[in-house]
Amino acid sequence: MSDLNAFITEETIDGESDGPLSGKSVAVKDNISTKGLRTTCGSAMLEDYVPPYDATVVERLKDAGGSIAGKANMDEFGMGTTTETSAYGPTKNPVDESRVPGGSSGGSAAAVAAGEADLALGSDTGGSIRCPAAFCGVVGIKPTYGLVSRYGLVAYANSLEQIGPIAPTVEEAAELLDVVAGPDAHDGTTRDEGADSDYAGAADGDVDGLTIGVPTELVDGADEGVVDAFWDAISELEAQGATYEEVSLPSVDHAVQAYYVIAMSEASSNLARFDGVRYGKSGGYEGNWNESFASAREEGFGAEVKRRVLLGTYALSAGYHDKYYAKAQDARAWIKQDFDEAFADVDVLASPTMPVPPFELGESLDDPLQMYLADANTVPVNLANLPAISVPAGETEGLPVGLQLIGPKFGEEQIIRAASAVEQ
Ligand code: GLN
């Protein structure tokens, strides 16, 4: 393997059956449980954690004959946009090693872009599949909430996240989605819709008659080079028979704020289990319970995780709940409604995946706000539980640009079809 640091654990597991993934190696993000294979979530807290069971998606990829290429590097517990908050060091972007690969599934995307794995699984709470796919010049799909089982995914913010595929091409990403999608008795939020879809078959590039909405709020404010590449891709789709119109989603201007309040609140509750007793390594402190928990968390968590647990706890606390958490839920409802209205008129929505090209390594670490704002185009999709794909669409200054296509609920086939047209 190269020195990209795409993997935290390089151990592999060979595929056993002749299914649709036989002969394919899959990098699995290190917050997805793999039986007998260390699963750290990019955290020192779980340095020695070896899950006793496979996540449903891992079971399905093994049943389909896929092999595991290793456990991919990630921002600690998925909290970040660059893979630099990993306790195991940052991953480099294979396109330009002075740049970040995006995050939080940066190891997954870098491994695919560099050919260190054929395919990858990532998770996307607020953009963590689409951002690294865009920054590394590969394809990533964030499925509709409920299409893919979260059983065995170590939770960051349950109401927002989904596991999804990263691959070199739209068709390969769709093939992996076909394998992992569908209801699961272990995850009560999974649904039957989409269970008998043929995602790979939808990658036929046929956009004749498709209407594309371009939300002005998600294009204005992006970097000039990104915007140019975006409009080139839209013109290409038009040339292939699609039409486009501008639409407005006024609520998305509040999406980053609402997302971070909700994500941090859910995280503060989810991460309470890491106390060095049942989960996580002990701080070795011999004092009372509180001191022992505190020392385990002080040593086991990095700075970004601590920031989020503190802010999330604050947002949920008596006296502040209505001011922050309840307000964020109102904004979330408004965002959902704006998307519903837009999809009454158009088939898919399009925007740049990321408003900026990949950061230099180290550039955004001391400025969390800059990092949070880079999620402006991806987080509305999670808040509305919709599907979206990022597909390579040219470059700016030699760096990849991703086009994001958003669909209505369980509209994966539509966005896969449109993305494959961009690719061709
Ligand atoms: N960058 C966002 C965050 O830090 C999204 C991360 C993710 O999707 N896991 O929360």
UniProtKB/TrEMBL annotation:
Enzyme Commission numbers on file: 6.3.5.7
PROSITE patterns: AMIDASES
Domain Amidase: 13-415
Catalytic residue positions: 29 (charge relay system), 104 (charge relay system), 128 (acyl-ester intermediate)
Family matches, as Pfam families: Amidase
Keywords: ATP-binding, Ligase, Nucleotide-binding, Protein biosynthesis, Transferase
Single GO MF descriptor: glutaminyl-tRNA synthase (glutamine-hydrolyzing) activity
Reactions accelerated catalytically: L-glutamyl-tRNA(Gln) + L-glutamine + ATP + H2O = L-glutaminyl-tRNA(Gln) + L-glutamate + ADP + phosphate + H(+)
CC annotations in GO: glutamyl-tRNA(Gln) amidotransferase complex
Region (Disordered): 1-26, 75-109
Family matches, as HAMAP family: GatA (MF_00120)
Protein name: Glutamyl-tRNA(Gln) amidotransferase subunit A
Gene: gatA
